[in-house]
Design brief:
Blueprint: H1 2-20, E1 25-29, E2 36-44, H2 54-59, H3 66-77, E3 82-92, H4 96-110, E4 115-120, H5 130-136, E5 141-144, E6 149-150, H6 163-168, H7 186-189, H8 195-220, H9 224-231, E7 236-237, H10 238-242
Parallel strand pairs: 2-3, 3-4, 4-5
Antiparallel strand pairs: 1-2, 6-7
Length: 243
C-alpha cells in the first residue's frame, strides 16, 4: 500500500512538473570564434524567480528566469566570440515593463556592433499581438512564418464590474476610498465606469499606445502617424505584414 501511495505521489509530482515547466530556453550556440550566436526563446510563462519548494527546485532547476535573460544579453554583448543574437518570440507572460527591459537589453547588445534577428511563428493569432511584435522590433530583422498572422490591432482594457452580481446575492459592498481616482473599489461598488475611472484607463492606454507607436516606428523606419493608420487596418496575414 505504501508503495502505491509513493508511486502516486511521484506520478503527481511529475505531472505538476510537466504542467509548470515552461518552454524557456537560453542557448549559447557554440561554433567557430567568429560565428557564435546567442539564442533566446521567449514564450510561455517566464518566472521572476524560481519557487523555493522542493518539487520546483527539483524539476525547475534549469528553468531560466527573467533575470537570466537580461544577464545573458549583457554577457553576450561584451563577449567577442558572440557575433549575433537570434530570438524566437511567442506569446509570453511578460508585461510592458519587462518587455521594455528586454528591448533595452537587445538595444545595448546591438550597440556593440552585433546583428540581431527575431523569428515569430505568429504574433497573436488568437489574441492581440502588439506586445509580441513590439518586442521583435528591437531586432534588426524580423522573420514571420508564411502561415502566421500579425495581429497588430492596437490596445484595449477589460475592467470587471460585479456590483450587479452582488445586488442579486443581496450583498452590499461598503468600501471607502480617498480621492476620486482611487478606482479599485469600483469593481465592487459600480456597474460601469465612472467618468474619472474611464479617464484614468484611457490615459493609461493612450500612454502605452504612444510607446508602442514610438518604438515600432523608430525601429521600422516609419512615421508614427503612418504606423497608426496601418494598425487601423490590422490584423495582417504574413504577406500583408511584409508589404
Amino acid at each position: 500500500m505504501k508503495k502505491v501511495a509513493v508511486g502516486c505521489l511521484l506520478a503527481l509530482g511529475l505531472l505538476v512538473a510537466v504542467l509548470i515547466l515552461v518552454p524557456v530556453i537560453i542557448i549559447a550556440t557554440s561554433g567557430p570564434a567568429d560565428r557564435s550566436v546567442l539564442h533566446l526563446k521567449i514564450q510561455g510563462t517566464i518566472l521572476e524567480e524560481r519557487p523555493d519548494d522542493f518539487l520546483s527546485q527539483l524539476f525547475m532547476k534549469k528553468t531560466a528566469t527573467f533575470r537570466d535573460y537580461l544577464d545573458a544579453l549583457k554577457k553576450a554583448g561584451s563577449d567577442d566570440q558572440i557575433t549575433g543574437l537570434f530570438i524566437e518570440v511567442g506569446g509570453s507572460s511578460l508585461g510592458w515593463g519587462k518587455v521594455q527591459e528586454l528591448r533595452d537589453g537587445i538595444q545595448a547588445f546591438r550597440d556593440q556592433g552585433k546583428w540581431t534577428a527575431a523569428f515569430m511563428e505568429t504574433a497573436g493569432e488568437f489574441s492581440p499581438g502588439g506586445l509580441t511584435y513590439y518586442l521583435a522590433t528591437a531586432c534588426d530583422e524580423i522573420f514571420l512564418a508564411p502561415p502566421g498572422l500579425l495581429n497588430l490591432i492596437g490596445l484595449h482594457a477589460e475592467i470587471p464590474f460585479i456590483r450587479g452580481t452582488l445586488d442579486k446575492l443581496k450583498i452590499y459592498p461598503d468600501m471607502d476610498a480617498i480621492g476620486e481616482y482611487k478606482t479599485f473599489k469600483n469593481t465592487f461598488t459600480e456597474t460601469g465606469f465612472t467618468p474619472t475611472h474611464r479617464e484614468s484607463v484611457e490615459s493609461l492606454l493612450d500612454s502605452l499606445y504612444g510607446q508602442l507607436l514610438e518604438g515600432i516606428a523608430m525601429e521600422r523606419g516609419m512615421e508614427e502617424a503612418e504606423l497608426a493608420k496601418t494598425i487601423d487596418h490590422g490584423p495582417f496575414l504574413a504577406s500583408e505584414a511584409v508589404e
